[in-house]
Amino acid sequence: MKTKLIAPSLLSADFGNLQRDIEMLNNSQADWLHIDVMDGRFVPNISFGFPVMKTVQQHAKKFVDVHLMIVEPEKYVDEFISHGADLISIHYEACTHLHRTIHHIQSKGVKAGVVLNPSTPVLLLEDIIADVDLVLLMSVNPGFGGQKFIENTYKKIAETKDLILSNNSTALIEIDGGVNLDNASKLFEAGADVLVAGNAVFSTENPERTIELLKV
After folding, report:
1. Which strands, in side-by-side order, build the sheet including 63-69?
2. Is 177 annotated to bind ligand?
3. Which residues bind a divalent metal cation (predicted)?
4. Cβ–Cβ under 8 Å, residues 80 and 66
5. 143 annotated as ligand-binding
6. pLDDT tens column, 177-212
7. Catalytic residues, which ones?
8. Which residue spans within 27-86 are E strands per DSSP?
9. Residue 39 annotated as binding site
Protein backbone atom coordinates (compact mmCIF):
# COMPACT_ATOMS: atom_id res chain seq x y z
CA MET A 1 0.00 0.00 0.00
CA LYS A 2 1.10 3.56 -0.58
CA THR A 3 1.35 5.84 2.42
CA LYS A 4 0.28 9.40 3.31
CA LEU A 5 -3.35 8.42 3.04
CA ILE A 6 -6.44 10.34 4.16
CA ALA A 7 -9.43 8.38 5.46
CA PRO A 8 -12.45 10.63 6.12
CA SER A 9 -14.68 9.23 8.85
CA LEU A 10 -18.32 8.81 7.90
CA LEU A 11 -19.19 9.26 11.57
CA SER A 12 -19.13 12.99 10.82
CA ALA A 13 -21.08 12.76 7.55
CA ASP A 14 -24.66 13.97 7.10
CA PHE A 15 -26.73 10.83 7.60
CA GLY A 16 -29.70 12.49 5.94
CA ASN A 17 -27.55 12.73 2.81
CA LEU A 18 -25.20 9.78 3.22
CA GLN A 19 -25.18 8.79 -0.45
CA ARG A 20 -24.31 12.39 -1.40
CA ASP A 21 -21.42 12.50 1.08
CA ILE A 22 -20.06 9.11 -0.04
CA GLU A 23 -20.18 10.24 -3.67
CA MET A 24 -18.35 13.43 -2.68
CA LEU A 25 -15.60 11.29 -1.16
CA ASN A 26 -15.53 9.08 -4.25
CA ASN A 27 -14.80 12.20 -6.32
CA SER A 28 -12.28 13.64 -3.86
CA GLN A 29 -8.63 12.87 -3.18
CA ALA A 30 -9.64 10.76 -0.16
CA ASP A 31 -7.91 7.39 -0.23
CA TRP A 32 -10.08 5.39 2.16
CA LEU A 33 -13.53 5.65 3.73
CA HIS A 34 -13.31 5.15 7.49
CA ILE A 35 -16.25 3.50 9.25
CA ASP A 36 -16.44 3.86 13.05
CA VAL A 37 -18.64 1.16 14.58
CA MET A 38 -19.57 1.64 18.27
CA ASP A 39 -21.68 -0.69 20.40
CA GLY A 40 -22.44 1.33 23.54
CA ARG A 41 -20.54 -1.25 25.61
CA PHE A 42 -16.87 -1.01 24.68
CA VAL A 43 -17.33 2.73 24.23
CA PRO A 44 -20.04 4.98 25.72
CA ASN A 45 -21.80 5.64 22.44
CA ILE A 46 -23.62 3.81 19.64
CA SER A 47 -22.95 4.67 16.01
CA PHE A 48 -24.27 2.39 13.29
CA GLY A 49 -24.25 -1.18 12.02
CA PHE A 50 -25.08 -3.23 8.98
CA PRO A 51 -27.87 -1.10 7.41
CA VAL A 52 -25.39 1.80 7.08
CA MET A 53 -22.68 -0.60 5.91
CA LYS A 54 -25.05 -1.74 3.16
CA THR A 55 -25.41 1.85 1.97
CA VAL A 56 -21.63 2.27 2.02
CA GLN A 57 -21.22 -0.98 0.09
CA GLN A 58 -23.69 0.19 -2.57
CA HIS A 59 -22.07 3.56 -3.20
CA ALA A 60 -18.42 3.57 -2.09
CA LYS A 61 -15.79 3.28 -4.78
CA LYS A 62 -12.84 3.60 -2.41
CA PHE A 63 -11.13 1.28 0.06
CA VAL A 64 -13.43 0.69 3.05
CA ASP A 65 -11.63 0.87 6.40
CA VAL A 66 -13.79 -0.49 9.26
CA HIS A 67 -12.84 0.30 12.88
CA LEU A 68 -14.74 -1.92 15.34
CA MET A 69 -15.10 -0.26 18.75
CA ILE A 70 -17.08 -3.23 20.03
CA VAL A 71 -16.75 -6.09 22.49
CA GLU A 72 -16.35 -9.59 21.07
CA PRO A 73 -15.55 -8.36 17.55
CA GLU A 74 -14.86 -11.92 16.44
CA LYS A 75 -18.64 -12.52 16.39
CA TYR A 76 -19.21 -9.87 13.74
CA VAL A 77 -16.18 -9.74 11.44
CA ASP A 78 -17.63 -12.14 8.87
CA GLU A 79 -20.74 -9.99 8.45
CA PHE A 80 -18.66 -6.83 8.05
CA ILE A 81 -16.62 -8.64 5.41
CA SER A 82 -19.82 -9.63 3.60
CA HIS A 83 -20.86 -5.95 3.72
CA GLY A 84 -17.77 -4.80 1.83
CA ALA A 85 -15.04 -4.15 4.40
CA ASP A 86 -11.56 -4.10 2.85
CA LEU A 87 -9.81 -3.73 6.21
CA ILE A 88 -11.11 -4.48 9.69
CA SER A 89 -9.34 -3.13 12.77
CA ILE A 90 -10.15 -4.51 16.22
CA HIS A 91 -9.16 -3.25 19.64
CA TYR A 92 -6.42 -5.00 21.59
CA GLU A 93 -8.47 -4.24 24.69
CA ALA A 94 -11.67 -5.86 23.35
CA CYS A 95 -10.49 -9.12 21.81
CA THR A 96 -9.34 -12.00 24.02
CA HIS A 97 -8.16 -14.16 21.11
CA LEU A 98 -6.51 -11.43 19.06
CA HIS A 99 -4.11 -13.61 17.05
CA ARG A 100 -6.89 -16.01 16.03
CA THR A 101 -9.23 -13.21 15.00
CA ILE A 102 -6.57 -11.33 13.01
CA HIS A 103 -5.74 -14.47 11.05
CA HIS A 104 -9.40 -15.29 10.52
CA ILE A 105 -9.99 -11.86 8.96
CA GLN A 106 -6.96 -12.29 6.70
CA SER A 107 -8.07 -15.80 5.69
CA LYS A 108 -11.13 -14.15 4.12
CA GLY A 109 -8.94 -11.99 1.88
CA VAL A 110 -9.41 -8.86 4.00
CA LYS A 111 -6.67 -6.84 5.67
CA ALA A 112 -6.58 -6.82 9.48
CA GLY A 113 -5.50 -4.15 11.94
CA VAL A 114 -5.11 -3.82 15.69
CA VAL A 115 -6.16 -0.71 17.62
CA LEU A 116 -4.71 0.76 20.81
CA ASN A 117 -6.49 3.14 23.17
CA PRO A 118 -4.46 6.16 24.34
CA SER A 119 -3.53 4.50 27.64
CA THR A 120 -2.51 1.13 26.15
CA PRO A 121 1.29 0.71 25.74
CA VAL A 122 2.69 -0.04 22.29
CA LEU A 123 4.97 -2.76 23.69
CA LEU A 124 1.91 -5.01 24.14
CA LEU A 125 1.87 -5.46 20.36
CA GLU A 126 5.24 -7.22 20.25
CA ASP A 127 3.73 -10.68 19.72
CA ILE A 128 1.22 -9.60 17.05
CA ILE A 129 3.01 -6.83 15.13
CA ALA A 130 4.40 -9.18 12.45
CA ASP A 131 0.91 -10.51 11.72
CA VAL A 132 -1.13 -7.33 11.29
CA ASP A 133 -1.50 -5.11 8.23
CA LEU A 134 -2.09 -1.95 10.25
CA VAL A 135 -1.78 -0.45 13.72
CA LEU A 136 -4.41 2.15 14.54
CA LEU A 137 -3.40 4.49 17.35
CA MET A 138 -6.29 6.30 19.00
CA SER A 139 -5.28 9.92 19.54
CA VAL A 140 -8.45 10.59 21.56
CA ASN A 141 -10.40 8.35 23.90
CA PRO A 142 -12.73 6.38 21.61
CA GLY A 143 -16.47 6.90 21.60
CA PHE A 144 -17.12 10.45 20.43
CA GLY A 145 -16.13 12.66 17.52
CA GLY A 146 -14.71 16.14 17.84
CA GLN A 147 -12.33 15.52 20.76
CA LYS A 148 -9.00 17.26 21.35
CA PHE A 149 -5.88 15.52 20.04
CA ILE A 150 -3.70 13.82 22.69
CA GLU A 151 -0.10 15.04 22.24
CA ASN A 152 1.45 11.80 23.58
CA THR A 153 0.43 10.26 20.26
CA TYR A 154 3.66 11.47 18.63
CA LYS A 155 5.67 9.41 21.13
CA LYS A 156 3.51 6.37 20.43
CA ILE A 157 4.00 6.76 16.67
CA ALA A 158 7.78 6.62 17.19
CA GLU A 159 7.47 3.57 19.43
CA THR A 160 5.20 1.83 16.93
CA LYS A 161 7.55 2.58 14.04
CA ASP A 162 10.47 1.13 16.02
CA LEU A 163 8.46 -2.02 16.80
CA ILE A 164 7.46 -2.43 13.15
CA LEU A 165 11.03 -2.09 11.92
CA SER A 166 12.55 -4.35 14.57
CA ASN A 167 10.11 -7.14 13.69
CA ASN A 168 10.32 -6.77 9.89
CA SER A 169 6.61 -5.95 9.85
CA THR A 170 4.95 -4.22 6.91
CA ALA A 171 2.14 -2.74 9.05
CA LEU A 172 0.96 0.77 8.34
CA ILE A 173 0.35 3.26 11.15
CA GLU A 174 -3.06 4.95 11.24
CA ILE A 175 -4.06 7.83 13.54
CA ASP A 176 -7.66 8.45 14.58
CA GLY A 177 -8.89 11.38 16.66
CA GLY A 178 -8.41 15.12 16.61
CA VAL A 179 -6.63 15.12 13.25
CA ASN A 180 -6.87 18.50 11.50
CA LEU A 181 -5.03 20.90 9.20
CA ASP A 182 -2.83 22.04 12.09
CA ASN A 183 -1.32 18.65 12.89
CA ALA A 184 -1.69 16.50 9.76
CA SER A 185 1.72 17.28 8.25
CA LYS A 186 3.41 16.82 11.63
CA LEU A 187 1.76 13.41 12.03
CA PHE A 188 2.95 12.30 8.60
CA GLU A 189 6.46 13.55 9.41
CA ALA A 190 6.39 11.60 12.69
CA GLY A 191 5.77 8.36 10.77
CA ALA A 192 2.02 8.03 10.35
CA ASP A 193 0.83 6.50 7.07
CA VAL A 194 -2.94 7.01 7.32
CA LEU A 195 -4.88 9.84 8.96
CA VAL A 196 -8.55 9.58 9.88
CA ALA A 197 -10.36 12.92 9.76
CA GLY A 198 -14.01 13.43 10.60
CA ASN A 199 -15.05 16.88 11.79
CA ALA A 200 -11.97 18.38 10.14
CA VAL A 201 -13.42 17.36 6.76
CA PHE A 202 -17.19 17.41 7.07
CA SER A 203 -17.53 20.60 9.13
CA THR A 204 -15.84 22.70 6.43
CA GLU A 205 -17.52 24.53 3.57
CA ASN A 206 -15.39 22.70 1.02
CA PRO A 207 -14.61 19.16 2.24
CA GLU A 208 -12.88 18.16 -1.00
CA ARG A 209 -10.44 21.06 -0.69
CA THR A 210 -9.84 20.22 2.98
CA ILE A 211 -8.91 16.66 2.00
CA GLU A 212 -6.41 18.04 -0.52
CA LEU A 213 -4.86 20.26 2.16
CA LEU A 214 -4.61 17.38 4.65
CA LYS A 215 -2.47 15.48 2.15
CA VAL A 216 0.03 18.32 1.62
Report:
1. 5-8, 194-197, 172-176, 134-138, 111-116, 87-91, 63-69, 32-38
2. yes
3. 34, 36, 67, 176
4. yes
5. yes
6. 999 999 999 999 999 999 999 999 999 999 999 999
7. 36, 176
8. 32-38, 63-69
9. no
